[in-house]
Amino acid sequence: MFEDDETLQMYIEESLDHLGDIESDLLTIEEGGADIDVDLVNNVFRAAHSIKGGAGFMGLTTIKDLAHHLENVLGLVRTKEMIPDSHKISVLLKGFDELENLLNNIQESNDVDVSDHVEALEGLISPSASEEQLEEASEIISERVDIIIKDGRVFANTPVSAIEKMKSEGKNLFLVEYDVPQDSKTEDKIPADILENLKKTGAIIESRVAAQSEGRIQFQLLYASIIEDDMAETLFNIDKKYIHSISDDMIVTTSVADVNAEPAAMPCLEKQDVSPVTAPKQAAVAAEPVKVKPVKTKPKAKKATSKKAAVSTTKPQTSLRVNVGLLDTLMNLAGELVLSRNQLLQGINSSNTKAAELSSQRIDMITSELQEAIMRTRMQPIGNILNKFTRVVRDLSQQLGKTIDLVIEGKDVELDKTILESINDPLTHLVRNSVDHGIEIPEIREQTGKEPTGKIVLKAYHDAGQVNIVIIDDGKGLDPDKMAVAAVEKGLLTEQQVDEMTDKQKTELIMLPGFSTAKEVTDVSGRGVGMDVVTTNIETLGGIIDLDSKPGEGTTIQIKLPLTLAIIPSQITSVGSERYAVPQVNLNELLRIPASKIKEKIEKVGDADVVRLRGELLPLLDLSKMLGIERTYNDPEKEEVCSDRRENIADRRSRQHHINEDGLIVETSGEEKKPQEREEKDRRYHAQSAMNIAVVSAGVFKYGLVVDQLYDSEEIVVKPVGRHLAKCKAYAGATIMGDGKVALILDISNLAQMAELSAVAEAGQTVKEAEEAKEAAKDRAALLTFKNGETEHFAAPLNIVERIERIKTSSIEQLGDRKVVQYRGGALPLYELSQVADFTELPEREQQEVIVFKIKDRELGLMVTPPVDALEVTLDVDEDTLKQSAISGSMIINEHTTLLVDIFEMVKILNPDWFKEEAKVAQKMAKSGKKTLLFAEDSAFFRNQVKTFMEDDGFTVLEAEDGRIAWELLKERVDNIDLVVTDLEMPNMDGFELTQKIKADPKYSHLDVIALTSLASEAHIEKGKKVGIDEYEIKLDRERLMKVIRKYLNLSK
Amino acid sequence: MAETATTISSSDLEFATFYVGGALCGINILNIQEINKHFDITQVPQSSGYVKGILNLRGRIVTIIDLGKKLGLEPINKNQNNRNIIVNSEDEHIGLLVDSISDVAIAKKEDIEPAPSNIGGVKGKYFQGVLKTETQLIGILDIDEVLKE
């Protein structure tokens, strides 16, 4: 046992093969019920039988035992003594499962306890039999039987227990007669040898020596073995007539008288004396241990196990079945190849170009064919894994009380072995999902007018060089709105993001990491593994997963997989002198930024370079820096390298800023010089070098890989790299290029991970970080976004918004050309944007969202279309393009061109008489001389806005772009200035410093300073108080600001 | 070498000898797949310092290791005599870049003496033993130890 590794391996493979088909056979048998398909049962029976047989030879007692019990039950089914029902089939299935387990862990199999299965199987044969058998057994122990051989002789007084035991192990009984003296003379057979030999293949129950009448001594063996009749002759190596196969009817209970008779006196038919001659001693000695053999086998097997385990720690060889026809084709091709090579060599040696050309053409063709043929050897029918789902669906649906039909189509579709193995788990998950969450229980199905039996279709087919696997269920489908709600609840998305999604997009939310809709975790599909894992798995295989669902009608999941992983289409790129292959699966697009545009397009976010691609920030990963040759592997010192770049980026950012504001910044000329200086320093951004970026995606996460050159896309053969490079996670392998040189294949997702420290970690929050990074230089504001009609997007400063209300349209009262609504005991005037500017009128709806503003202590409502959402944005306002009344400018928010509503101006248009006070002040000022305000603000937008407010109210405004300019202006014209209004965050000199200077110098300290800020924080206010800021105001709150200005200038009443 | 003249018996061991810097080393010839001078090596950024790069050896990707660096000596100087010794280790072909190759030395097993703790600046653990010839001392490399990552 276990001696012959190869035989064992063969046995395992063969047995697993047998088991492969059993499952579906059993399920078919179950379906058939009482209508037993004998052929099918025979199939299963034979499988169990051959497994048992082999196990006997190999000494795999546990397997043999289990197989034997399975066989017993199947035997009853075969003879129609037992009707297979689903319980019985379940027991059988479990038994076979265990058998498979044992076979897969063959070395440990003998130590596994299978008594549960054995009991269950015995229970099937006769539910109450086990007890009876026990009782009987105790009686039988001493009982003895006679065996009557066909020719009438009797082999008497054999212990029943031994016979029963052997039979229960599925062994056949033989009575073998050796003519010892004769045989040992002629054929050199010594009884001891014979016994040794026989013990290897079976067990000797009893051996006796009988003197024959002709003076010959006969040596009789009662022998049990799994060997079948027809093999016995070869085994015993004697003539057939001396071998008696013993069947049940030949065993007769010994008469009572005989029991008492001396066992030694065992008359064969011819009443020979049992006078022990030479052999019996030996025989007895030999026979003794045989009886205890079943006990002894275990320790023996164990020893073998441990020894074996020590030896065979090396990986198990996996093997593959290949069609012989295919193998022949390969042989043929190999032959052809050799021939062509010879021709080629001849042609070259004799300088016969024509011959060489011809043979190279041949070699070309043969190689392609060879490649294809070899690829085919790796191909396995997908049925191998699809078939398994019959069982999965059956077991699960039983467990869940559902009835489900599983239809499998396209079992013959072939896929690369490695892919096939890897899609097993994702597919199982999907099918389980369908059964668990998809298909409803029969009652509910009936209520919704569906067939009570659910249907799941598993379909595989070829399409466009890819394999498609479709899983269709006719269950309840996915409810997009529920998905959306769940995603928001889990904080994966904001309500606003969800609002803008289509139903399909919402449905696909299920693939987001951290998303699981199952209300409670079931042990069926809720095992902490979500759809996102499935998606990732499929994507690592280079596949695509697509989900489509109609609520109430079912779900369709489509998986597209490449045929093979060994050859992959790839984009060839180069950095330095080496080429690198980027798998096409990971590649989204190629991007080339001309040298002149690099500075505009590339920005810095946190530590990472980013490029703005269609409104999205794409982190960049510079492959040359990433793989810098002088840097050693795994060196976390990337920070250093990046720190050089940060300077560049900082420059670039201010440049960007500068461009956005259209040259409004004063020191434009100074700014212009800087990039030029940089160009000289920095080769990479030199005007001549355009930037080549491969936009790649690793799972959900996209980034740009900066390379030196982009070449063609090629089909490359993936080759493994040696163990010394196993630690280099940046590579997925290597390939050999057309010129014979090796190129490395990049592992896109690992690269991203490796760069985490410096470059791309912020991927998820790039936008947020981008804004944070810009905060210092740009103005941020909290805005309320809303829509007017379906297509027009608007925003208004959040700080002047009082509330957002939802009112019933029916409660709106029309008074002349005005609309009002009863609101908190008063009437709230309602307006809409179409009243002040050229926008569409709001559509009729049952409910109306109203944004309530408070201006001049009076409230008014603006009717808008939802979604209404508050968000913080960096103001990057285009004041000119879409300028019109009540609109202060436009900017891009969430990919929509959004108009900024100037509420103040809107009110002014609608209610000019609300502004009498300002008009009065302005008049007063006009009489008594205008008051002059010094206003420092770096953002052109705010500068213009606030300046307009001030001038509208009759002030003279001196503008400054930053603190330093304001300081200069103040020094020059201190006598004219009545009040200083300053922004806090400014380049060169900020508002704090400016205030400090003003307050510290007795010449200016009489001036009051009002600070303007977009987002006032406690810390800011604290700091401001310290340096002497008199008042804080929010930038876009025109009314308050002007009020405060008037207060400080003593202009208010 | 004197040994070459004597007949080789089956118990004799053959060693291919080569220079790494000034040190003469040997590898059991049975470990060697081939010796070549392909130097169209693709560099592998971020690999260990001793990895020279990878090479296409008739369709197989072979890692080339700078034996000088690996043994803690100076890196191999690039010159015409450089050779790759392709050895078979753990089912993988690995190339050892050496300065130059020398003769094949034949020795009996018992002639090999245990290695001292240090041979010409190389740690003793890399050697199975040393072989003294009339003129030279050959350090017999323990390939498995040398090729440990």
Structure at a glance:
By secondary structure, chain A is an alpha+beta fold.
Quickly list its features.
heterodimer, A: 1053 residues, 40 strands, 43% helix, B: 149 residues, mainly beta, OB fold (Dihydrolipoamide Acetyltransferase, E2P), 5-stranded mixed sheet, disordered N terminus
Q: What is the first-to-last residue Cα distance of chain B?
A: 35 Å
Uncertain stretches of 5 or more adjacent residues of chain B: 1-6
**Mean of the pLDDT scores of chain B?**
83
**CATH hierarchy, class of chain B:** Mainly Beta
Overall body shape of chain B: globular
Structure in words:
The complex is a heterodimer of chains A (1053) and B (149). Chain A has 1053 residues and is of the alpha+beta class. Chain A contains 36 helices and 40 strands. Chain A has seven domains: 5-127, Four Helix Bundle (Hemerythrin (Met), subunit A); 142-302, no CATH class; 324-377; 381-478 and 517-562, 2-Layer Sandwich (Heat Shock Protein 90), CATH 3.30.565; 567-771, no CATH class; 778-910, CheA-289, Domain 4 (OB fold (Dihydrolipoamide Acetyltransferase, E2P), Beta Barrel), CATH 2.40.50; 912-1048, Response regulator (Rossmann fold). Chain A is elongated. The model of chain A is unreliable at 128-142, 255-316, 519-528, 629-688 and 757-777 (pLDDT under 50). With 149 residues, chain B is mainly β. Chain B is built from three helices and twelve strands. The longest helix of chain B is centred in the first third of the chain and has 4 residues, at 2-5. The N and C termini of chain B lie far apart (35 Å). The interface between A and B is medium-sized, with 27 and 25 residues.
